[in-house]
Amino acid sequence: MVDMYDQIVGTNSDSKITVVMDNEYKSRSDGSYAPVIEGTSQFFSTNGTYNVSGVSFKGTPGEEYLLRLQTDSIDMTKPSN
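The structure assignment produced for this chain is given below.
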């Protein structure tokens, strides 16, 4: 399968995406609440796609946070990556 950028798209069903909080924001020394990710934080692929749902995030209102999506599905040995 090829996507709109002519890149090969895998159709595996054994890769995962993990939602994580960036380390810079995990502990706060300014008295604000530490951010929390609740619910499901790992999602497994089905035929090369992911359905990310059931995850929520809580933190101090007005503060900036950075959520990251980490995956094991990108093959770094392929030249196009």
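Interim note for the steering committee: The mean pLDDT is 80. Residues 16-71 form one domain.
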